[in-house]
Queue: 3 jobs
Job 1
Amino acid sequence: MIYSRISGTGSYLPERVVTNADLEKVVDTTDEWIRTRTGIERRHLAREGETTLDLAEKAARRALEAANVAPGDIDFIAFGTTTPDLIFPNCGVMLQERLGCLGSPAFSVETACASFMYALSIADKYVRCGESKRALVIGAETLSRITDWSDRTTAVLFADGAGAVVLEASDAPGILSTHLHADGRYQEMLYCKGGVSRGLAEKPAIVMAGKEVFKIAVTKLGAVVDETLAANGLERSAIDWLVPHQANIRIIQATAAKLDMPLEKVIVTVQDHGNTSAASVPLALDAGVRDGRIKRGELLLLEAFGGGFTWGSALVRF
Ligand code: ACO
């Protein structure tokens, strides 16, 4: 039996740090409101001219180095993003060119904050069926480009960054299962106005019914946690680390409570990164790996929830 195993992780954050105090000068908000409602204290924003692909390339090279894999040996690229450099070609292809692993499949997956979970699930299937030996999975965003900086309900939440993992074929697990979901009835609650076929808005911008999104996110993430445990015949206590989507500390706390997990067993980066959408889970994973908390052999539960709605999980023996 072939499994896919995460052999390396990497991430990259733009150098520019914007604190809550900085945002107080941009919109009618306070550091206290942002911290108590979301847990966010600061975030990284790309400088002018710095693109999603630029961030992704740096994260990818770090993941490749950690995995000890040469860029040219990658045979599959799944790139999760909602903020691609161009409408086409897709960011996966552009990254392939930069890394020099030409010829093999390279594509982008656009399922908002769940894009990395979807990309990981697809890459896992290709490795498991033997068609890919070494896949690169990316989550990267420049959400600052689709943020309405005059809307205090969203401007304080979103940020930029990139995370990456290398998946390699292995005799031992690896990714034990992935579970993906979508429910298109909720499109209006969280979307980016402006589109190609509908006509480009003057300026694309995220629109969100925060309170409603919050409630449904907590319910759906709780359900996908249960589904993941049941599918693998595991008790909640089996999970060593929860690596959640970093949208809001209160959503993270609710999911941890569902797992009966103390926050010390949850990788939390939302205070430093804000909501980086597709990049959020691989950024948190890389943070936990590089600071030595997550160790080889441990059992990780990754999960994310985003616009659509779309959501998903992955159970990973690291
Ligand atoms: N600063 C100060 N006050 C604010 C701000 C702000 N930045 N934003 C809103 N307020 C005000 C509101 O106007 C409201 O005032 P009112 O009571 O006078 O009407 C009050 O604060 C409360 O607003 P709520 O929206 O009810 O605040 P809530 O506690 O729900 O927190 C938040 C808002 C943080 C957005 C929360 O609902 C949330 O995190 N939602 C989920 C976000 C999420 O998970 N998104 C999914 C992924 S994102 C993706 O897919 C791209």
Job 2
Amino acid sequence: MAIVEPGAEQASGRRRLRLRNPATLELIDEIEVQTAGDVRAAVESARKAQPEWAALKVAERGRILSRAIPVLLARQEEFVDVIVRETGKPRAEALVVEIMAACDAIQFWAKRAPRILADRKLSMHLMKTKKLCIAYRPLGVVGIITPWNFPLMLALNPTIQALMAGNAVVLKPSEVTPFSGLLIQELLRSTRLPDGVFQLLLGDGETGAALVDAGVNKISFTGSVRTGRKVGEACGRNLVPCTLELGGKDPMIVCADADLERAANGAVFGAFSNAGQICVSTERVYVVEEVADAFTQKVVEKTAMLRQGASGEFDVGPMIWPTQLEIVSRHVEDARSRGATVLTGGRRNPELPGLFYEPTVLTGVTHEMAVMREETFGPVLPIMRVRDEEEALRLANDSRYGLNANIWTRDRRKGERLARAVQSGSVVVNDCMLTYGATESPFGGVKESGIGQVNGETGLRGFCHAQSIIIDRFGAKNEFLWYPYSTKKLVWLQRAMRWVWGTPLGRLIS
Ligand code: NAD
């Protein structure tokens, strides 16, 4: 059984991939894997189209891209159908995290980008006869490579930001969910974006690797640490900037004074939505021993109430492809064999045909187990009892990942203190997973969870080169520091240095 299998042989020798619905295992369709030649052609067309797009004002780019919003609103059911067919996720998750989030991102950037990308005029602290202007110039052609867990949003979000910044985009979505990529192409066509500015490439790792080597001006990659490392190496070789949004092993810290009902609801939602296939899923819990039993009991009760299914009303969908099912099973079996207790779940769902793994809660886990060290990316919630918050923090930080984290306490100051001490790119207090969806907050991991950020002002400006333009204000015939050099000038400079950095007044005005 495979969701992505080799497709029919082609006379042209081109590879094809056949895709199945992971919930029902029904055949969806086939795609053709685009070759290095196709990639080069797409980048070339994008390069030709980019200057005309970059010449438009940012607000005008926003007006064009905003035309996607009424299309998304009008065709939301149809879009949700496509996403659900290739991922098996509940319709509510497709609607909220893909369609709603897409509308919000488009509107947000269309409104905010003109201000964020406007020239910044600064007075210079030392060279008072010059003025400085920072201009956010587009990079050129941006290659965007994305995963399958939120196939529409994770591809559309960087695409919109790169386009708003005046770049052309070549998008290579995951081979596991190519049909959402086709939706993006259709959506952007409906905005009457100039031809060539957006290009879609379908294919697998081979197509992705070809894109990294195709002479683009930036790679925005979202995916696993293993692939991210390869992409980073290739970008280093090609001297192409990249952002790498990679995996996580997000910790949850439950303090003794937490609202246990809210924390348990948050744990269940944070661990099992999208069947745990979210980079910012809660993947391990550290709960202070005073409240550990009460918290765990609530989590188990709430988990047992989750409904898995392939149609109608349900809460938890399948693993989106078999590789993920194998990883989840391996982590649970490893934990079980090393002494963990399975409180609920712990097996593939025998009642459903697709790739369903039952929402699973584990206790008695240790940091020797894969489930506490490696990204599981599935519906598994291991809970570890700890002495106090300091031990929770030490264990939370004992990881090679650092993407997101969540902390639960009624004491806001303590929550903020712990948040600042967690080694993660972002952190949420008394809630979970919000950070990618909060468009204004820069998002990206530390440690092996990534390099660079999307979203926020930093993310948008990351699709630009901040060009410094320094302009002389008065047009003197010569500058003091130009030729000729003389002993008199040296003595004067030394005096000036003593005054600027050695006196209170000098320090004040410099
Ligand atoms: P993956 O790394 O297997 O694939 C990601 C993309 O890279 C796909 O489009 C794939 O075709 C392409 N690819 C594969 N080999 C390539 C190569 N050599 N060169 C260039 N491209 C190549 O990841 P996945 O399994 O699709 O996604 C799951 C992973 O993504 C998880 O680790 C998850 O945590 C991570 N993720 C991170 C974020 C984030 O924002 N940090 C968001 C979502 C998912």
Job 3
Amino acid sequence: MEKKKNISMAVIKRLPKYHRYLKELMKNDVDRISSKELSEKIGFTASQIRQDLNCFGDFGQQGYGYNVNELYNQISNILGLTKPYKTIIIGAGNIGQAIANYTDFEKIGFNLEAMFDINPKLIGIRIRDIEIMDIDYLGDYLRENQVDIGVICTPNNNGQKVCDILVRNGVKGIWNFAPVDLVVPEDVKVENVHLSDSLLTLTCLLNDD
Ligand code: NAI
């Protein structure tokens, strides 16, 4: 099955959920699943699922359903999970350390290679086996080491400055936790994480009567 270009952002946002559920099905030795069964598990309608999966080719077979393993591999491929990503964290405070300590990211190929901070009290400390380095060394580090993803966990007023150093030194992926709209060239991809957006969705639902 060919990887298709121009998949809509709405579909891309749903793919990690498919990936998660398919992995679970594989763990439970489920070989095949119909769009109706998948729909009951995942919470998308069966027609939504058929429409989404049609974006990448002719998957399900009438009367057979989806081959779980094949679909999982294909979605992993589309999600770019067929290779490892060298990752560094900038800002080794609460969020930076929480991400560094979450070892499951490595299981899907996000290899944490280095951490940086500006605070002398943190520099030299090890989080798991990674020593926090001085932010002043970031530029040199990036010139010596190819890095795929920079995770920005600094306060918002420093986010752009840190981002500029990453971009100048060839980092193409930014996972941004700082509440700032980063300005980057077109070939650099930024994914912003706002936990508070999710929390405010919850408060909205709680008050939706
Ligand atoms: P924190 O204060 O525990 O950690 C921030 C770290 O960044 C500190 O260790 C600080 O020394 C370091 N730092 C500051 N300037 C730096 C620079 N130029 N270079 C390298 N390191 C630098 O803060 P916390 O709780 O980890 O939050 C980090 C950021 O994430 C903040 O901007 C906060 O507003 C934001 N945040 C985002 C959330 C989200 O959902 N995206 C949720 C909560 C916080």
